[in-house]
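Section 3.1: Structural characterization of target chains.
Under the original work plan, the team committed to producing a structural model for every single-chain target entering the pipeline before any wet-lab resources were allocated. The record below documents one such target. The sequence was received from the expression subgroup and is listed exactly as submitted; it comprises 83 residues.
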Amino acid sequence: MFGWSGSATGETFIARGEYNPNRIGDALASRDFNATLRQMGVITGGPSAYSPKDRSKFASALDAAVNRMRRRDVTQLERSSDG
């Protein structure tokens, strides 16, 4: 599972198109747990193939997250220049 977290913003983005800033801990714990199971030989397969639909969901969610952060940054910049 691919994950990204903007450390300065606390934004969290998961590759399959799920976005929730409160779920990064869950995603990391799941990744670590599954890595341990693979090392033990319990899990030998992986997730389903990354489909065009998954790619589209990822691109849409990433675009929305980037635009949301840009809008927030512009708003913060405008507020700081008004002072």
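The first strand starts at residue 3 and ends at 6.
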